[in-house]
Amino acid sequence: MLTPRARVLLRPLVSLPAAALLLQAGPPPAQAQAQVQLQCSGTLLEARGTAELRREASRFSFSLGLEAEAETADQALEILQGRLGAVRQELKALGVDELEVTSPNTWERGRSGRRPSAWVASLRVSGKLALERLQPLVRRVGGLPGVRLSPVSTEARPEEDRASRQQLLRAAYQDALQQARDLAGVIGLRDVRAIQVQVEGGPRPVPLRAMVAEAAPDFDPAELPAPLDRLGLQVWFCAR
Fold first, then answer.
1. 1: in domain
2. 21 is a domain residue
3. Any residues with CB less than 8 A from the CB of 177 and at least 6 apart, and which?
4. What's the number of domains the chain is made of?
5. What is the per-residue pLDDT across 32-56, written as a single tens digit (0 to 9) for each?
6. Within this chain, do residues 114 and 37 fall inside the same structural domain, yes or no?
7. Helices (H), 10-147
8. Following DSSP, what letter does each residue of 159-195 receive, concatenated?
9. CA atoms of 196 and 177, how far apart (whole Å)
């Protein structure tokens, strides 16, 4: 079930005149017909509908880079392996889910100014944690040697995904349909029928700074932006 605070926001991306593609009555030109492959005995209209749904967060996904350097590639890999062990131990203590570790990569960094050349070994670690684990992730994991935290993304309860998508589909389609009806009314047409729909959409990442000074205030998971589901529809209508 969606929370009472969840709501749908309709935000057309462009104004109505730019959102609609108007073709003369009768068969569409060959170029447009080849592009959308539609048959319309009236006037072909194109409109884009969008919808947003802010949901309650239940956990967050994270990704971090882990790096080590030494005089040789073997030494760098050995140091990296030790650092990975420390990171894995802390994450397991935090109750990490869906932990993934990439294979290591090595390269030689050339000499730059006073910094000598060295071999660098790196890999990436990702997983999911409960919201209350945000502060321990930053302090206990983000402060380990060689760790660079990337932006995190809050996630809603997976069991609510289908209901959320259905709500977004309805709202986005109604947005596009209203645009098409408005334009059809302007040009003296009344019957508007959808003949093709193209769906798109996805979540939005949430930025989080990785390294924190000891005196800095705690990271409050309640301050993270809630998961925001977005969905867009490109709809072609036949108006008569």
1. no
2. yes
3. 47, 49, 192, 194, 235, 237
4. 2
5. 333 445 688 899 999 999 999 988 8
6. no
7. 16-19, 30-36, 73-93, 134-136
8. GGHHHHHHHHHHHHHHHHHHHHHHHHHHTT---EEEE
9. 12
Helix (H, G, I), strand (E, B) or coil at 16: helix
Task: Give a yes or no: residue 2 inside a domain.
Answer: no
Long-range contacts of 110-118 (CB under 8 A, 24+ apart): 118/69, 118/70, 118/71, 118/76
94 and 67 assigned to the same domain:
yes
Structural domain that includes position 186? 8-56+158-239
pTM above 0.70, yes or no: no
Domain annotation covers residue 168: yes
* Closest residue by Cα to residue 176 from 156, 192, 159: 192
Q: What value does the mean pLDDT take over residues 196-216?
A: 54
Task: Pick the last residue of a domain from 133, 155, 177.
Answer: 155
Measured at the CA of 90, the angle between CA 56 and CA 222, to 5 degrees, comes to 20
